[in-house]
Amino acid sequence: MEAKGYTLDGTVDLQGRPALASKTGKWKACAFLVGYEAFERMAFYGIMSNLVNYLTTQLHEDTVSSVRNVNNWSGSVWITPILGAFIADTYLGRFWTFTVSSLIYVIGMILLTMSVSFKFMKPACTNGVCSKASSSQITFFYLSLYIIALGSGGTKPNISTFGADQFDDFDPHEKHLKASFFNWWMFSSFLGALCATLGLVYIQENLGWGLGYGIPTIGLLFSLFIFYLGTPIYRHKVRKTKGPARDLIRVPLTAFRNRKLKLPDNPSDLHEFTNTGKRQVHHTPVFRFLDKAAIKDGSSSSSGATNYQPCTVTQVEGTKLVMGMALIWLVTLIPSTIWAQINTLFVKQGTTLDRSLGPNFKIPAASLGSFVTLSMLISVPMYDRYFVPFMRRRTGNPRGITMLQRLGIGFVIQVMAIAIAYAVEARRLHVIKVQHVIGPKQIVPMSIFWLLPQYILLGIADVFNAIGLLEFFYDQSPEDMQSLGTTFFTSGIGVGNFLNSFLVTMVDKITGRNGKKSWIGHNLNDSHLDYYYGFLLVTSIFNLGAFWWASNRYIYKRETKEMKEGCVEMEPPKALDTSLGLQV
């Protein structure tokens, strides 16, 4: 294959012909993709960053209801990729799933823009005072939002993995290029988020919500046009299994059927495929009970006359990988809950503070989220150009540090951020007490820039967390389930949002019982938000311990691919991680 100039990983073009390595893929193909990611993130954060303010000021929802509805919608945006990834991995492939889903996304954006633009679709306002929205107006608004969530379900898990597919894992040069792909991919995502939190939020509050939603809609259409210009040079991975997710059910069932059989002493005696062109995953000693699914002829002897085909070691190891990733996924839920504060309680907290910047200008509270993005944009190049080479020289790891080390550092920084958020809120309540601030709309004589440290630290943490998680779940997923694998990343954020929605609701109900002061009341100037942040801080510290336990038990994937020229092995360098005790 290499002599003919084709890619070594078996990728093809849109017509199904083997892809030429020199004319397809790599960064020249990704250049057409990053524009979509930037505009899509601008659209998402243009909605997400200021949605809690729209719900409270335009639709007149109370604080707890608005936070709950924002988290439920955001959670849906991040959960629906499970469906989109399953469709891509099992039926349509990444390219066509993305194509259909992006159309749904654009329709949702158009409907949302209409709902905030046309007078009959939004509450009537007189002298800045808006009447209560009708049930039909609320239904149309939320229908538009959830159409966007449905469209995002097919675009989010497939566009980033489709970009990663443009690099050949079996070509050393392209594999080196791919090591930086997710860093720069997320850089474009952060750039789109920055435009939203700096520009769109201001436009929404000062020039109109219709214009604030219309701009990213037009940008999204433009980015799709650019995306399809690159179609001739895209590489497409060929699905080698019709239903890869079925192995997650078949392997445990087969292992259960063979539960009375004895495992061979040598793992090489287990069943494995040969000469299929698929990557073989090396056997690992974890979850040994699943190895019984790969006992040769075991299924037929254990089930009487019925002959069951044994699973291969690669299928068994794929199931093990998913189980191992599930443990890591569980310990990402609390950090995702912390992240959910940025677009909910942090924003409401900011609206109570002094937002003046000069005599005639007020900073929109949601615009402070731009400092999260700015810290990301500054940190990503520093991480990629300075931190990684420095650590690479010390550890010998091509990534500088292991993927789980990267996550651990991010989680520690997040704990620092929520600790600072607790301290700042305690300070705000002290000022309220001293200055006798009582009313819900009274401004606390304390600058909004007191919130900057927690925003900046969460941005730095996300350089380690968000990029690290996306790379980890893509890299560690079984070959035929990489779209589905990356939904561990998106679903973790989604469940984190739902968890925050649940926590806010329950904390409000429990602490506000019998006429007591709620921690998260409608009037934040007469609440105890510091207690809620303290609760999140303690939970995060316990979660760090859980992450330590799970990461020390995780074994990274090792692969080999059989080819006509011989075997090509994809194996991480054997370096011992001295800080977490993780073997790479």
From TrEMBL:
MF (Gene Ontology): dipeptide transmembrane transporter activity; tripeptide transmembrane transporter activity
Pfam families: PTR2 (PF00854)
InterPro entries: MFS_trans_sf (IPR036259), NRT1/PTR (IPR044739), POT_fam (IPR000109)
Transmembrane segments: 95-114, 182-203, 209-230, 321-342, 362-383, 404-424, 455-474, 486-507, 531-551
CDD domains: MFS_NPF5
Location in the cell: Membrane
UniProt similarity note: Belongs to the major facilitator superfamily. Proton-dependent oligopeptide transporter (POT/PTR) (TC 2.A.17) family.
SUPFAM superfamilies, per database record: MFS general substrate transporter
Gene3D superfamilies named in the record: MFS general substrate transporter like domains (1.20.1250.20)
Keywords, in A-Z order: Membrane, Transmembrane, Transmembrane helix
Annotated organism of origin: Acer negundo
Keyword Transmembrane attributed: yes
One cellular component (GO) term of this entry: membrane
Stored PANTHER family: OLIGOPEPTIDE TRANSPORTER-RELATED
Membrane topology: Multi-pass membrane protein
Protein name per Swiss-Prot or TrEMBL: Protein NRT1/ PTR FAMILY 5.1
